[in-house]
Structures are given as C-alpha cells and as structure tokens.
User: What shape does this take?
Amino acid sequence: MNRSTVVGQESIRPKSKISLRSLTSKAAILEVCCFLITLLFIYAAISKLRDFSTFQLQLGQSPFITDYAVPLSYMVPIGEILLALMLIYKPLRLIGLYGSLFTMALFTAYIYSMLNFSYYVPCSCGGILNSLSWEAHLWFNIGFVVIALAGIFIQVHFKNKA
Amino acid sequence: MSIYSKHIVLSLSTITIAVGVVAFLANKSAGMMEEETKFDRKMTNINLILSSVTPRSLMMTAVAGVKDNRLYFQTVYPNKVLVTDFDFKNHVEKTLNVPSDDTTASMFTLLLKDNGLTIAASNTPALFAADEGSASTRMYHFPQRSFTRVVMIAPDSYVFRGRDTAVKTKDQTFFKGSPAAGITGREDNVSKKVGDYGMSTDGILDYDKTSNLIVYVPFYGNQFICLDTNLHKKYEVTTVNDKSKEINSIGVTDAQGQKMVTNVGPKRLLNTYSNVHDGTLYIKSDARSQLQPAATFANNSTIDMYDIASGRYKGSFYIPDHQGEKPFSFRVTDQSVIALYKSSAVNWHINN
Assistant: This one.
C-alpha cells in the first residue's frame, strides 16, 4: 500500500512537471500565433490606409467585388485593426481568433477563386506582400489560416483548464 | 459534445461561411459573364491542322509578317529580329544597329517593307530604317511625340495613333506622315474624345494592302473603325459580339503619389488581338456566343472574320490551344495561321 503510494507519487510528479512545461510552451505558441496575426493585420491595414486610393482602385478592378469596392475599402482595414485589438485584449482574444480565421479563410478562398475562376486578375496588394505572386500569396494565407486554427485550440485549451 | 468538438464545428463553420461568401461573389461575377453570351456567331468549316511546331524562343513577341516566304518575328529586343521559314527552320537572327535601351525597348513595332525593315520606337520616339541585308540603320526623330500604334501604308509613309503635337487634346488621334515630309495628314474627328490619353480606346492598328484601307480594333469596345489612307472614316462597325457590354471604365487616380490614368473596373478585353490579310480582318474575340459550347470555347480561341472593304461579318473559326496554352499573337497568311503561344510557335495549316 505504502509502496504503491510512493510509486504512485513518483509517477505523478514527473507528469505534472511535463504538463507545466507543456502549458508554458502552449502559452508561448499562443502568444506567437496572436503576435503574428496582429502584426499581419496592423501591417496590412497601415499599408492599405497609406495608399488608400490604390487599394480602393485595386478592389474596384476585381471582377468579384467591383460592385462593393467602396464599402469594402473602408471595412477591410477597419476590420483588420479591430481584429488586431481583439487579439491584444485577452478577454476578447478568442473572438479575435475566430474573426482572424474567418478573414484569412475569406482571403484564401478569394485568391483561389481569382486564380481559377476570374477572367481578370488585378494587381495583388501593397507593401511587402506586393512582391509575392498570387500563388505565393495563397500559400501565405493558408499558413495564417493554420496559425489562427492553432491559436483557437490553444486558447480553448486554456479556457477549459481555467 | 466536448468543448473541443464544439470548437471544431465552430471553426469548420467559420471556414465554410468564408468560402460561401466568396463562392457567392464568384457566381455573381460568372452570371454577369453569361449575360455576354446572348449573341450568335456563324462558325465556318475552316479547320486548322497542325503543320509544324517549335519551342518558342523567349525573345519572340509577335509575328511581324511574311516576306519572300520567310516569317519575321519581333523580339523583346529592338535590335534583334528572328527570321525562319514556315517550318521554323533555317533560323536566322538579324542584329540591327538600333539602341536597345529601356526607352526604346519599352514599346516598339517591327515593320516590314520590300527593301528592308523599320523599327518604330514609340517612346523615343523615332524610326530606325534598315536596308535589306544591312545591319546599319538610319534614325529619324519622327514623329515628335510618342505614339502607341503605327502601320506603314507605303514605303516610308506611316500612320500613327498617338498624341499629336498640333492638337490640344487629352486623347490619342490618328495622323500620318513620313520623316521626309513631316506630318501630312490628320484624322477628322474619328477618335473618341474621352480625355484619358487614349487608354480606354487602346487597340490594334493594321493596314490592308489589298483594300488599301486602315482598320483600328479597340480591345475593350465592341466595334472597329475603318479609315482610308487620307484618314477619313469609311465606316464604323459593331462587331458580332455586340451584346457584350463595355465593363472597363477608365479613371484618373492619384495612386502612389502621382496622377495616373488606369482602369477603375475589371479589365475586360473583348477583342484581344487582330490582324489583316488579303482583304479580311481577323479578330480574336474573348466573348462566347450562345451557340458555342463552353468547353469548345474554353479550349480554343475564336477568330471572327470581317470583309475589310464593307465591314461585313464573314464567319468565325477556331485557333486551337496548344499544350493547354492560348495564342497571344497570330498572323494569318495565304495557307497558314502562325500562332505564338507561351512555350511554342505553331504553324497551323488552313483547311477549308
């Protein structure tokens, strides 16, 4: 009985250490995920707002969204800033991650559709991403969909633990 | 349902909604395209049979023409001309004494004449004339302002589309002249006055020796213009794909800190390429008619033929895709259609 307890205690102690380490690394991964998405959205919003007329023009050139170019040209950068703020403000982080997932999935589906179903593909976007081809942009966005998904499940894991 | 299952469902739903939104927008856009198919086109029994094919030299940009049964290809370099026979054999690369700086290379046209070649450099602007068999050229600073399109209507006599120095306008117009005589003729109210420096009316200018007429086919519009060599408008014809609406609209924006004229809507090229041969105008159309099967249209390029003298539509035929690629340039000759694709040059034999 005593032996088994000791054995039991020995087997629990190392596990709890691993679990603590695991929690710490999960927290770090979550922070990295949120940081990357926040950085992307802030950067994307600033580059859109800095050259707003070009951004609005490029939206208008897209066959899919030409009719909605004006409202979208305001909604997209504002939405990106709001999502970035949600990711920074921890109580709203999960909503922010879902918003990011939706936005990145939307952008990914949009690029895929443009490449495969559109009769005209306009210039991609401003800033550093301007140097990426549409195909590279597609993979870049898929990467951020995965990051957002990872962020959601780690965040849920923490909420569950709490 | 566990908390994780709930969030898996939520995540998948989020992605599905995002994809659904894009699918709706893409479908709406496709619906607009279908509206364009409500016209008829008469497919003729002209079939093209593959005669010869060669990997495209990356230098080739257009089939400039045929002279002495030899094909002349314009290249990306203003000082290089590729010449082959109709089987793409006996390949000769001619080097001309023409500057290959960025300004000259940015836009130029190779013109063939009986006793030599002319390189018309749009942005220099200048004409470089080379005699047959000679690499040396004579440079003429003509015309004085840059131009976008040029054809040769007689030895050393040219028709241009560009900004005319003598006319105060924000549009491009047609004018003609020669280095020796200067500008000798101007159009009389032929070009549309849009004030966009000719962008929305950009197209392809050609001269047909058989009818002695000049044709101008805009990329975005659903009509073409025919002029005589005195630049009087002979007629303006609505092309067979006349139900296609002009979606493209041009606007001025101060993008990237400078004023620029560009398309403010999706660029929709309707008549994407054209050339003339023996009294017939050949226009590559990007609009599908209601009788054309979608798959056939997708795997071929539709060429509409018009009689240049009258403007009458004669029928259409297909240039097939080659190795999944569409031709970006073609030239019709007596018995062949020479087409340039991204990775190959193909001689299609015309089989009536």
About this structure: Residues 24-161 of chain A form one domain. The longest helix of chain A spans residues 2-50. Chain A touches chain B through 34 residues (CB under 8 Å).
